[in-house]
Amino acid sequence: MGPLDLITTTSPLMAPAFLVSGTAAVLRAWIAHRTAVRLAAERTRRVGLALTRAGRGNSAEVVRACAELEAAVGPDPAPARPAGRRQGGRARSRPGA
């Protein structure tokens, strides 16, 4: 008797529940990956467009300026958390609100 047999004989609803939760986890990971790939592609496109418009003599300055802008913006935004989930189990209070 394997682990899947134990799950399905314990409760017939457990196997579909595990399949759905596993599928949801894979889907969330895939969306996060595709978001990161898209953000990197957009960054590359912006730098390429800036280099094209700047001409050959200013390439180093353009790349440096783009890097400074990216650093000023900060890291890539995290994917939005699903509604209803909170970190720490408590609502976060906003300063000054």
Structural class: mainly alpha
Number of strands: 0
Q: How much helix, percentage-wise, in residues?
A: 55-70%
Please summarize the sheet with the most strands. none
Query: Could you tell me the strand content as a percent range?
Result: under 5%
The string of secondary-structure elements, in order, is HHH
* Spatial gap, N to C terminus: 58 Å
Shape: rod-shaped
> Which spans of ≥5 residues are poorly predicted at pLDDT below 50?
none
* Discrete helix count: 3
Gyration radius (Cα, Å) is 23 Å
Mean pLDDT: 78
What attributes characterize this protein structure?
single chain, 97 residues, mainly alpha, 66% helix
Commentary on this structure:
By secondary structure, the protein is mostly helical. The protein has a domain at about 10-70. The protein contains three helices and no strands. The protein has helices spanning about 5-10, 15-55, 60-75. α2 runs antiparallel to α3. The longest helix is centred in the middle third of the chain and has 41 residues, at about 15-55.
